[in-house]
């Protein structure tokens, strides 16, 4: 795969080129971004879109990645293959979204990973949406008994410099809320502009895979689990990622909405059913992850991922099949890293 030190946008979709995908492709062409769409079994047989690199199931299976063959089909977690393609192509950052999120100009402009802003610590579970809205609203994956928790005002939190290699942008119109919210409370909802806040040690808040920027140090944490509830894959990934981030002294950035979501059709009661494992387990997952003895440093991330998912398997929220799939992911990352080092050595010698 050709090396290209540029940002990449990664999406998984079974839709033909729709308005959002067409806009993403045009925007990426204009900005010099790579744009990868990972298809699945139900994807259209022909998918052509200028500025988009589409991977059908058959093309995915031709890739030199163990994850491509091991990851279940008909599953959102096949997005992992898109991450690997972007990494093998030398992505300077990965911007992930979905095919129903209309990007704004600032969607393509992440903040620098090192930034000075209010950082929440030792708050327990945080309803981050309270800083962006006065409405009764909360992010998907937040324990329900934390929705109305009282948190310090941002004016009371002294800004400090912190490292945020994972950055979550919010979504206006149809934000990422759970099925209980959608069944009971009003939409659309829009968030305040210009708000930025980070969470750090012992400040839990779910983040999603719908509008998230990742910088290289955090790339191994992109891994989406497959053997769990579909509605929890990115949420539980976020819990693992932030726990490992704490071990490294990193923070998670939450910022104003940079997309408007025009949500694809969903069956809300089916979403509710698929979210039940989260409603009843999310707080316990945090407690289990907090108990882990994790190693600091990027070199320790593979073992930290193993420890985290072994703990989730033991808790019974993730199936045992996850562990060999995680090993495939880690092997693919090592292969990509090794190939990159070899190219760097050749370039240095030839230079």
Descriptive terms for the model:
351 residues; alpha/beta; two-stranded parallel sheet; 9 helices
Class by alpha and beta content: alpha/beta
List unreliable stretches of 5+ residues: 345-349
Q: Please report which band the strand proportion falls in: under 5%, 5-15%, 15-25%, 25-35%, 35-45% or over 45%.
A: 15-25%
The overall pLDDT, averaged over residues, is: 94
Shape summary: globular
Helix/strand order, N-terminal first? EHEEHHHEEEEEEHEEEHEHHH
Largest sheet: 11 strands, mixed
Q: What distance lies between the first and last C-alpha atoms, to the nearest angstrom? A: 21 Å
What is the radius of gyration?
A: 19 Å
Give the proportion of residues in helices.
25-40%
Query: How many strand elements?
Result: 13
Count of helical segments? 9
Write the layout of secondary structure elements.
Layout: E1 8-12, H1 19-31, E2 34-38, E3 53-55, H2 57-61, H3 66-70, H4 79-88, E4 94-97, E5 101-103, E6 114-120, E7 124-125, E8 159-163, E9 166-172, H5 179-184, E10 196-199, E11 203-204, E12 211-214, H6 233-247, E13 252-261, H7 268-290, H8 301-315, H9 322-350
Parallel strand pairs: 1-2, 1-4, 2-3, 6-10, 7-11, 9-13
Antiparallel strand pairs: 4-12, 5-13, 6-8, 9-12, 10-13
Helix pairs in contact: 4-9, 6-7, 8-9
């Amino acid at each position: 795969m050709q090396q290209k030190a540029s940002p990449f946008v990664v999406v998984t979709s079974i839709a033909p080129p729709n308005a959002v995908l067409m806009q993403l492709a045009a925007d990426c062409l204009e900005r010099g971004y790579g744009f990868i769409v990972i298809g699945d079994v139900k994807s259209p047989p022909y998918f052509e879109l200028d500025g988009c690199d589409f991977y059908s199931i058959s093309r995915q299976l031709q890739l030199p990645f163990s994850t491509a063959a091991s990851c279940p089909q008909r599953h959102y977690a096949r997005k992992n293959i898109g991450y690997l393609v972007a990494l093998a192509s030398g992505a300077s950052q990965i911007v992930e979204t979905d095919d129903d999120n209309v990007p704004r100009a600032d969607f393509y402009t992440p903040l620098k990973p090192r930034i000075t802003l209010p950082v929440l610590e030792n708050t327990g579970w945080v309803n981050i949406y309270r800083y962006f809205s006065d409405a009764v609203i909360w992010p998907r994956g937040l324990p329900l008994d934390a929705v109305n928790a009282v948190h310090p005002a941002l004016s009371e939190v002294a800004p400090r410099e912190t490292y945020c290699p994972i950055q979550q942008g919010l979504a206006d119109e149809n934000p990422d809320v759970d099925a209980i919210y959608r069944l009971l409370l009003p939409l659309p909802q829009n968030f305040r502009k210009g708000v930025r806040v980070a969470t750090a040690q012992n400040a839990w808040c779910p983040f999603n895979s719908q509008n998230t920027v990742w910088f290289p140090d955090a790339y191994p944490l992109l891994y989406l689990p497959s053997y769990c509830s579909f509605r929890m894959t990115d949420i539980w990934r976020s819990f693992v990622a932030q726990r490992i981030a704490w071990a490294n002294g990193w923070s998670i950035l939450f910022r104003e909405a940079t997309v408007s979501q025009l949500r694809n059709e969903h069956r809300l009661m089916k979403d509710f059913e698929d979210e039940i494992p989260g409603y009843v387990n999310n707080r316990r997952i945090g407690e289990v992850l907090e108990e882990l003895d994790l190693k600091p440093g990027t070199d320790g991330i593979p073992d930290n991922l193993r420890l985290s998912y072994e703990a989730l398997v033991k808790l019974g929220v993730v199936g045992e099949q996850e562990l060999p799939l995680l090993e495939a992911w880690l092997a693919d990352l090592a292969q990509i890293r090794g190939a990159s080092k070899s190219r760097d050595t050749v370039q240095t010698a030839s230079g």
